[in-house]
Amino acid sequence: MLSNLPPTDGVGDLLVGYDTNYDAAVLRISDGQAIVQTVDFFTPILDDPFLFGAIAAANAVSDVYAMGATPILGLAIAAFPTDRLPLSMLHEILRGGATKAAEAGFPIGGGHTIIDDVPKYGLAVTGTVAVDRVVRNSTARAGDVLILTKPIGNGILVNAYRSHSGGGRLRRALRRGSPPDMSEGIRWMTMLNRDAAKAMTEVGVSAATDITGYGLIGHLLEMCSGSGVGADISAAAVPVLSKVRDLLARGYYPAGSSRNADAFRARVDLQANQEEYRLMSDAQTSGGLLMTIPADREPLLRARFERDGLFYAKIGLITAQAGRITLRA
């Protein structure tokens, strides 16, 4: 789809564009300084408008953190059915986003809203980074260790929650007992990747990305394709939200995750069971950072994370098998 757009060569000093599925765009503005820009928005995943706004903001700024940058400004993007829902709900969405942005240390200076049938909210975020400190998702090297900074599974958890909060034949068929407890998922989805990114940039990593809509497998494949490498990961080593495997076994699986599983299967050598592969393909909202670091430097990164009490999971290795992932049990 993007291949027929006008080329960006010679239009500004664009260091990072859309050619290799980067997390954000990077533009040099002086010899040593660059700005990073990203945008993300989506429909509500929870009934609580304040939490929805906070999660959407944490998700949007994550791309800036993944590239080693510091966010400095946000602009809100909102769509809202003013004829069907009270404006107080939109106010709470905006307040949730602004509160999370303030936690991250940047203001939301304005934005744009439209009337739409379905609520949507997100941010365009600008950050700054030194040109020589940009972290890319295309520079992983064979032999690097793979690190993940949040558990996965929130797509399945949200799907189970939403299946209990609406009607329809499929939802009624899937519904079992009470809706799942969302507290663990909310805690991770509202958690900024700021501290993990700070540790990452202080120690220095080979490459990084964040885990969002394409799931762990999809974003790892982007990293592998851009870097000309492969990966070998262990499903048992990948942290998963509690009760999510049980929810998956009961049939809860979002449509976006199913599309991921179908799209990426041909590039995965599966040595685990199909359910583990589906879990690794689960579309995430405000997921963790996925980073690679040379094996001899990995203890330094681990020590830095442990010093600040940050979540840290070693899930596999980067290999020389370009563009392919081996998923072990």
How would you characterize the overall build of this protein?
With 329 residues, the protein is of the alpha+beta class. The protein folds into 2 domains: 14-133, PurM-like, N-terminal domain (60s Ribosomal Protein L30, Chain: A, 2-Layer Sandwich), CATH 3.30.1330; 145-328, PurM-like C-terminal domain (Phosphoribosyl-aminoimidazole Synthetase, Chain A, domain 2, Alpha-Beta Complex). It is 35% helix and 24% strand. It contains 11 helices and 13 strands. The strands form 2 sheets. The chain has a 7-stranded mixed sheet with strand order 8-11-7-12-9-13-10, with helices on both faces. Strands 1-2-3-6-4-5 form a 6-stranded mixed sheet, with helices on one face. Helix 1 (49-66) runs parallel beside helix 2 (87-104) and helix 6 (194-203) packs antiparallel against helix 11. The protein is globular, with a radius of gyration of 20 Å. The protein starts with 13 loop residues before the first strand and ends with a strand. The model is unreliable at 167-174 (pLDDT under 50).
